[in-house]
Amino acid sequence: MTEAPVRAVRKGADLSLEPTELEAEPGAAVTTTVTVHNLGEEVERFTLEVRGPGGSFATAEPADLRMLPDKKQRAVIRFTPARDPGQRAGPHPFQVVARSTVNPDVVQRGSGVVVVGAFARLDADLDPEVTRGRRPGTHCLELVNAGNAPAGVSVELQDDTGELVFDPSSFDETLEPGVREERPFQVAGPVPWFGRTKSFPFTAEVVTTGIPQPVQLQGVRRQVPRFPWWVPTVALALVGVAIALAALLVRDPQVPSVARASQEAAIQKLRNAGFSNILATPEGSDRVDAGKVLRTEPGAGERYPGDEPITLFVSNGPCDGECPLIVPNVVTKPVDEARIHLARVGLRFQELTEAGDAAAGTVLSTDPPANSEAPADKLVTLHVSTGPASASASASASASAASASASESSASAGATGATASSPAGGPGGGTPPGGTRPAMPDVVGQPSDRAVRVLERAGLATRTAVRHTSAAPAGAVLRTNPAAGAAVTSGDEVTLTVAEPLDFYDLAERATWQVDSASVDFPARTAAGPRKEAAADLEDGTRGRVLVLRPSTPRGSVSGDFPITDGIVAGDHLLGEVGFLQGAAGGSVEFAVTVNGHEVYSLTKEADGVLQPIDVDLTGAQGATTVRISVVGPDHPAVWKDLRIETQGK
């Protein structure tokens, strides 16, 4: 009996991609859809893999497909190029491979290309910012291409007076992504035979392709004359040659290393080394603890005259984003020293003269005020004294002031006749003789610990109130009660209102996260769960900084508990917007906010192309130390944009 032939089982598959050509901006995501068709007679299981240059930043969702005979399944290939120099701009080919785990010889492939957009960023630094001497000084311009495409860089060196000579005066570079280049150049000023050391500010303007605004770096050349200014006078009475030789043999003291020391210890060490003219100024840093020294200008190891100004840069802690420039406290300083300190910080400035009680050439005030933030593109105004008014005018003004003060005293025992120039009485000092009372110091904009020290030295007690805001650095004094300039008495209590930013985007790593009641890391290691994106494409067509919460199941949940260190204060509002990433569709998601176990906000929303604003008054939750945000719904990427707590009202 002849056996019937065994019929071969049909097997096979087909794969298609739509679209095959994509464009993606660094930091954003784009997707293509892969469709796999089971052409065989058996139940199949296919695994998806993305190969090629584009595969390095691609994920398949899901990566495993199961299907019956003659059925189709779809998956999404998501490309998320990083905003990093290592992610080069341009085309990145990719290949999607679908391989059967049932029939290993069944393999299908589909090819495409994703074009990564270019972004431009250049980091530039001038080191050192100040040189001093008789011979030309050497500076070094450090350039880093932090973008993802080659950048053409043009540098031009110039000074306002045209008295400096630069070698070279300009140069051009082409930097590949991630490349760091150092270009030294020399600066020389006119060298007089006699006189004082003269400062010549100059600018290094850096123009980069793709960046519309040029970078301007400020430097200072301090040109020393051949002989000190006093040599001609001394030479008339003494032996000029001996004096000149002695002056040349005297060596300036050497600047000691004070990095990472406390401000007080650093100042003492500089004084012990022979330096008497020291100015401390704050600067943001995420590498050095607040209150510790970052560096000095001139730098450690340099020889420098002991009576010339030393700038001591002290960390005031990390910044939110790029650290702002802080105006140094140059009030009461000679204007030439003020120029040096401002140039070392990196600020441009202008000068206005006015009559004042201080000696001519003394800085009376600055705008913006000392220890406040100054935008890099804003000029700092130095108000410089032209000297006291005439004696008769001064006497007349004093007599009028005394008469007014006497009239006020007789009219009301509680009158406020303060004079801003009166010294504080100190602890137990009471009201100074003459009927006037000391004025409240201006500490607005200063770190709270420094403000407390200033007020305690003035004999005043302090208490602190918190205001949640992102408009000032953490710990900065926003206002005082009494206000600056008001008359105070030793022992009075001053209320300091201090800034405390509460930005949920920045606090995300400190929050406790759960997906369907299970604890997870932040950011999540899978497509589902919590993460954050700095420039996400949103459903309303805009881009923004968002927290993304994506459930893993059709009725899944994602939640995060955020700690509020100082607790909710009166007037606090929860502000922001909720919605979805671009491309989300179908199904509703429930957004909710819970404070210490009580729900204060709830919204059910679909992807409708509109972000929904949030403004929740949290005054009723005063003192609460935990805020929970959550989403419940299908596996759509729900977002919380610019979520923050701010104190409103006075």
TrEMBL record:
Residues 252-316, 321-386, 435-500 form the PASTA domain. The keyword Transmembrane applies. It holds the Pfam family PASTA. Residues 413-445 are annotated as: Disordered. Residues 413-424 have a biased composition (Low complexity). The chain crosses the membrane at residues 229-250. Signal peptide: none annotated. Keywords: Membrane, Transmembrane, Transmembrane helix. This is PASTA domain, binds beta-lactams. It comes from Geodermatophilus ruber.
